[in-house]
Amino acid sequence: MTTHPGAIDVRGDWTDTANDVARRIRARVLELTILKDGCYLSQALSSADVLATLYTRILRLAPLDGPLPSEPFTGVPGTPNRSPSGGRFHGAHFPDGDRFLISPAHYAVAIYAALEAVGRLEPGALESFNTDGSTLEMIGAEHSPGFELTTGSFGQALSQSAGIAFARRLRGETGRTAVFLSDGELEEGQTWEGVQAAAFYRLDSLMLFVDVNGQQVDGFTKDVMNVEPIDFRFAAFGWDVRVVDGHDVVAIAEAVEAKVADGRPLVVLAYTDSARGMPYLNANKPHLHYVRAKTDADREAFEQALAELKGILA
């Protein structure tokens, strides 16, 4: 239950909406995994509840007139006909509104599925996912739906977002700046420079959400480059640290609702399961960075899991 003074009650019908959006994210990305013979599926399975809570409960984004189409790719920044920013899917900027910045480019398909589920990406747009000339790229960039920042190299988004939060404060804006990060990016030096700077400049309008699924391309994070204890490390830098079950939408929302303006930026460490909603994949851990069906048994299990997820949605 929400216990802090002045907080709104975060237990209500919105949780049904958030859980439904999370299931839609998992189903959509699994469907694309089957259709495209591979995808960054485990990242969507682990982050679906965090993204659903952000889009349905936490973020104050400007509404759109309707779902936006994903325009074809026309050019990179600096070219005469550059592609428009993917940030337009989060609506127009306004002083009291939130900005939402995405860091891990390989989570792009989860972002697209979330935008589709909440009515910001036109239905059917994902048919062009990972095809030549589409902005719905497997590795998201600044023109991909939901992406406002360049995401390469990894680990740059927190520094850029802290700069945005600082600039907004100078302009007198009261809106928050939210950043979504993968735990593997906590191995990046620039991430910790951003952590240090955000605390030094007392950017308490900055919110960082980390999908701590404990895995990376080469195996378990703890075996490749251990980043724990993450909570102590952030606290040592002066951050307001909240550790939550990343599949509990109420806990995620409460972590934000409890935030007070005390000069400390907020980090929500969401511990997640990279096989959430698809336990068949547990046997393949930790090798789930990029998932594809390799055997007939895999294909049968994938189809069954998709049917179950769609059955829940029916």
Automatic annotation (TrEMBL):
Organism: Arthrobacter methylotrophus
Coiled coil: none
Domain of life: Bacteria
Keyword Cytoplasm: no
Chain ranges of the Transketolase N-terminal domain: 93-279
Cofactor: thiamine diphosphate
InterPro entries: THDP-binding, Transketolase_N
Gene3D superfamilies in alphabetical order: 3.40.50.970
Chain positions covered by the region annotation Disordered: 70-90
Lyase as UniProt keyword: no
Protein name from the UniProt record: Transketolase
Alphabetic keyword roster: Thiamine pyrophosphate
Pfam family, one: Transketolase_N
